[in-house]
Amino acid sequence: MAIFLNENSKVIVQGMTGSEGMKHTRRMLKAGTEIVGGVNPRKAGTKVDVDGVSLPVFATVAEAMAETGANTSVVFVPPAFCKSAVIEAIDAEIELAIVITEGIPVHDSVTFWNYAEAKGNKTRIVGPNCPGIASPGKSNAGITPADITGTGPIGLVSKSGTLTYQLMYELRDLGFSTSVGIGGDPVIGTTHIDCLKAFEEDPETKAIVMIGEIGGDAEERAAEYIKNHVTKPVVGYIAGFTAPEGKTMGHAGAIISGSAGTAESKKEALEAAGVKVGKTPSETARLMREVIENL
Question: Which InterPro entries does the UniProt entry name for this protein (predicted)?
Fold first, then answer.
């Protein structure tokens, strides 16, 4: 099994006809993702040839869903128009909207997050500013490389795209059920806790890697959830052990203030919940190997 994305997922790409959308549509198709069309109101009714695959372009997400049975959208729309694109996906009640776009104003993210909640959370939002979801051997929706790992028993949830790729590569011989990049913006849809819950319920996921970073209290809240609800072994890594106080590091959400949000405070909270925390990505991979060997 896999969480959120599997071999039955039918994917549309909002912004498919743009340069980034087209590049990653091509890459996702090569990975075996079932892409059934794209959305661009200005090019509705046309078809786009992607390496011999003819993909229809629809005016709206709702039209694409009605015509193709799509249940997942990957959003490559530019930041200024992304709020409208996500709200359109929510209105269409698509099951999963993976928002790859970075640079979306926080106010816009708050708006579409609240809108999804007001509509009953029928659409799961992943992101924004994330690498997407990869379920090796089943489907790949986003920008995660498809050839760096295989299928296996590890579930991964991460704020960081590049650290996601590194852990997947370092543990490629063990393999993954699903990797979920949740993004590092201050406001995101799917959280560490959402993924931990799903991995706990997935019978094929035997152990979980959780990658966090400095700033905010998401990792502390995840630690509390692990302590009370997760029975599977969890290995963690916090990016930013050497970050200077008060400085934003890469992601918009990665800023610390005093002792709150530091890598050390997050490490302590996770270890108190029984999570083994690596000081480097390679050490984290080694800890996971030990966990798998002892299962």
Answer: Cit_synth/succinyl-CoA_lig_AS, Citrt_syn/SCS-alpha_CS, CoA-bd, CoA_lig_alpha, NAD(P)-bd_dom_sf, SUCC_ACL_C, Succinyl-CoA_synth-like
- Determine if residue 33 is labeled as part of a ligand binding site: no
Give the residue from 70, 91, 126 where a domain finishes: 126
Tokens of 55: 């993909």
Interval 13-30: pLDDT, tens: 999 999 999 999 999 999
Question: CA 179 to CA 225: how far, in whole Å?
Answer: 19
Instruction: Count Cβ atoms within 10 A of the Cβ of residue 176 and give its class: 0-12 exposed, 13-18 middle, 19 or more buried.
Output: buried
Residue 214 lies inside a defined structural domain of this protein: yes
* Cβ neighbour number for residue 265 with a 10 Å cutoff: 18
Q: Quick one: 151 exposed, middle or buried, by C-beta within 10 A (0-12, 13-18, 19+)? A: middle
165 annotated ligand-binding residue: yes
Does the reported pTM lie above 0.70? yes
pLDDT band at 248 (very low <50, low <70, confident <90, very high): low
Helices (H), strands (E): how many in the chain? Answer: 9, 14
- Please indicate if the annotation marks 100 as binding a ligand: yes
What was the pLDDT predicted at 171? 98
Which residue out of 24, 107, 192, 251 is catalytically annotated? 251
Evaluate whether residue 142 is within a structural domain. no
Place of tokens 């299962």: 295
Looking at 31-35, 41-45, 211-215, which range is the least confident one?
A: 211-215
